[in-house]
């Protein structure tokens, strides 16, 4: 049985299906970047609201901007935008439900004008985004818009910018302005510190480069709330599809899986209204920053701390690395001694307990989140998730031994060869430069750390250099486990 509106009544009772009439949904949100995370997070919160009988004018029209992502378009079209979300608990229980919050999807490379029309429609009040950490094209150190990506460069050179999220939104805002309509809220749901500020810099920076007059209008009429989002959503594998078929007789071309845990903290800064997110469990607050730092340093930072050591030790999945006693001891020390001291207190929140919850979540063997995924795009992630904690520790004269060892594990990983001679597939936008620097570190141990675009002046700070070289030398002479045991 293929999943669709027509087959919903036939879905087995063990699978929860939408209780609302999807024909009554109306677009209020256009989401750019409909991937696994959006479908397991934002769309789920909306589905919960719709099932309560609320907010049916806040359904999602999805938009894809990557030219070769036609498979996503085709899968959602065949299933009327429906898909299954399966939550996997550590004890082996899999609970599935059908999500109906996405009621339209458009692939912008095939028909950009229909996307612009949808963005410009008066009913559209929020444009939400999951375009990845690197998708904003904003300099991590200066906060300035760079305009370096291929899609953005094409838009900057074109008469009509129809390739990037920034170009499509600019075209739509031009149309809204001409028609006397107000602005929208640009709501980033990406794992980026200050994601609202970053989105603002990207969209206004692009507009300034393309059409300064529109940049001023957008500055006056658009809002960019910050948010903190959290949920582990691994890539879909064939086993997930097979489970649905074997267990329920259900064919889903693009299911999604996730851990049971989810969290969303959202700044209340919406120029044209919003759904009642708090009724679905979203924490709507005046200031997201303390929550954001907690998550970025204790959850995302922990992911980065474990993935390179885990790979070097031969582990394949995150839960395997978490179960390794030497890695777990290192993570506890990172959380307690080097991350938590840099956080701003949050009333009613125990950071140590939160850190243990992170390890418990990541240790869920049912999720099977690959270390390869966590190791990807490190040049975007380490500067956001781990280095800010290191710099804060250094400023206060406190230990950075674990942070330095993690950076050293990345440097060793970037050599591209494991401890038994196996090839490591280094996936990073800066792959060639990173691997070139890593190849020099046997004769120049600080070659990797001297990349100032990533590490700033860390190579000039003895308090960081000393533990970094100690860990790197241990990995070169005794392996990753020897380096970890030095941290005990």
From TrEMBL:
**Annotated Gene Ontology MF terms?**
mannitol-1-phosphate 5-dehydrogenase activity
Q: Tell me which Pfam families the record gives.
A: Mannitol_dh (PF01232), Mannitol_dh_C (PF08125)
PROSITE patterns of this UniProt entry?
Answer: MANNITOL_DHGENASE
- Name the family: Belongs to the mannitol dehydrogenase family.
Q: What class of enzyme is it?
A: oxidoreductase
Gene Ontology biological process: mannitol metabolic process
UniProt KW NAD keyword: yes
Q: What is this protein called?
A: Mannitol-1-phosphate 5-dehydrogenase
Identify the SUPFAM superfamilies for this entry. Answer: 6-phosphogluconate dehydrogenase C-terminal domain-like (SSF48179), NAD(P)-binding Rossmann-fold domains (SSF51735)
Which lineage ranks, top first, belong to the organism behind this chain? Bacteria, Bacillati, Actinomycetota, Actinomycetes, Micrococcales
E.C. numbers:
1.1.1.17
Quote the PANTHER family the UniProt record gives: MANNITOL DEHYDROGENASE 2-RELATED, MANNITOL DEHYDROGENASE DSF1-RELATED
**Catalyzed reactions per annotation:** D-mannitol 1-phosphate + NAD(+) = beta-D-fructose 6-phosphate + NADH + H(+)
Q: Which positions fall inside the Mannitol dehydrogenase C-terminal domain?
A: 287-475
| Keyword annotations | NAD, Oxidoreductase
Organism equals Georgenia subflava
Mannitol dehydrogenase N-terminal domain sequence ranges:
28-278
Record InterPro entries:
6-PGluconate_DH-like_C_sf, 6PGD_dom2, Mannitol_DH, Mannitol_DH/Oxidoreductase, Mannitol_DH_C, Mannitol_DH_CS, Mannitol_DH_N, NAD(P)-bd_dom_sf
